[in-house]
Design a protein that fits this description.
This protein is mainly alpha-helical and 194 residues long. The protein has one domain: Endonuclease III, domain 1 (Orthogonal Bundle), CATH 1.10.340. Helix content is 54%, strand content 2%. The chain is built from ten helices and two strands; from the N terminus they run αααααααβααβα. The protein has a two-stranded parallel sheet with strand order 1-2. α2 packs antiparallel against α6, α2 packs across α9 and α8 crosses α9. The protein is globular, with a radius of gyration of 17 Å. The two termini are 14 Å apart.
Amino acid sequence: MPSMNVAPNRCAWPGDDPLYIAYHDVEWGQPLHDDRQLFEMLILEGAQAGLSWITVLRKRAAYRTAFDGFDAQVMADYGEAKVAELMSNPGIIRNRAKIQSAIGNARAFLEAQAEFGSFDKYIWGFVGGQAVQNARSSLGQVPAETAESQAMSKDLKRRGFRFVGPTICYAYMQATGMVNDHLVSCFRYTEVQR
């Protein structure tokens, strides 16, 4: 974490929102290998479809409560009563398709976990188990999707996951540190390489 006396050079996208800045400075691009956290991010990235990430970020605490801490085992057993409860929860994005996809994704997640031994092993396989170290100097150089995110999207869909298009998958890869898309001028660029 940089000194609070001098504003560090960081990617411009968080703007001046303290929540967004904290997310950028601590989480975004940090390689994640914990299955529960990887699952949480997959659900949240899907919830973001058509919305801004800050909208989801502001609702993350409510999502964690509503979705039982993103415990895939618990979520896989949600029925219609739970869907109705979630649809009436103002703390989350009340979109039936997204809520139902989260439940279906929990089931698909558990199957992938069982097949590969961990979801981490499966999902990081799309980058050969190592974070891709990009060296971008401007936001304009960051693509919306890549060959890897397209392959991930195709395979996730084949396994029954939903809200996992190639653009969502690339945002997921960036968020979970599978790719380092901090700009080279950003103080986090070298930190997430370690």
